Amino acid sequence: MSKRLSPRGFTLIEVLLAILIGSLVLTSVYGIFSSVSTTRKRLGVEGALYHQTRIFFDRIGGELSSLRFSPVGNEAVFSSGKTRSGEIFLEFNTELVSPLLQRHGGISRVRYEVQQMEEAVVLSRSEKVLLADLAASEPLHFIEDLKTFQVRYFYRGRWQEGWSGKNPPELVEITLELENDNRLIPFRSSFVLSGGRG
């Protein structure tokens, strides 16, 4: 007669080992999911910063390429410097007018200015139509959370940090630094100011 084996269950050690392996697998999966989620969020914020900066460089590039070289009124065609609070500004006459202001004339005075807000540094833009008696537009916050805004000017073979010349420079270089997750993201672009229109 053959001996029948009784069904045997798992031992305590086998159960504990299975729980340990299962928890290691779940912890690994959660770690990967958390890492992917954090990276996705960081890339989303960086993508927005790149988009915002690209729009800024496209806009100012178009305005500088449409620079009005002959003066309108008493102000210099192109001026730059620091405000009373020590922040950088860049101001110039351009024929590239915002669509809402085009019906009033074809030349505007555009001003880009760094402003210290409550807890952030902001690059703002305002525009005043020169051929109509309109007040300057309210400053539009173009770029927020700005860490660095630098402008250099090239004229007659050398770079200058400031501009006070009667004529516009030959080249304008703009450098921005924006911060994301305690990391500075630099942006730089240069614009040639040539072929002036009268």
Class based on secondary structure composition and strand pairing: alpha+beta
- Helix content class: 25-40%
Order of helices and strands: HEEEEEEEEE
Quaternary state of this entry equals: single chain
Shape: rod-shaped
Low-confidence stretches: none
What does it look like?
The strands form two sheets. Strands 1-2-3-4-5 form a five-stranded antiparallel beta sheet, covered by helices on one side. A four-stranded antiparallel beta sheet has the order 7-6-8-9, covered by helices on one side. Strand 8 and strand 9 form a beta hairpin. It has one helix at 12-65; strands spanning 78-82, 88-94, 108-116, 121-129, 140-143, 146-155, 158-160, 171-180, 183-192. The model has no long low-confidence stretch (mean pLDDT 84). Helices cover 27% and strands 34% of the residues. The protein is an alpha+beta fold and 198 residues long. The termini are far apart. It is rod-shaped. It has one domain (46-192).
Compile the SSE list and pairings.
Blueprint: H1 12-65, E1 78-82, E2 88-94, E3 108-116, E4 121-129, E5 140-143, E6 146-155, E7 158-160, E8 171-180, E9 183-192
Antiparallel strand pairs: 1-2, 2-3, 3-4, 4-5, 6-7, 6-8, 8-9
Please supply descriptive tags for the structure shown above:
rod-shaped, 27% helix, four-stranded antiparallel sheet, 198 residues, alpha+beta
Summary?
With 198 residues, this protein is an alpha+beta fold. Helices cover 27% and strands 34% of the residues.
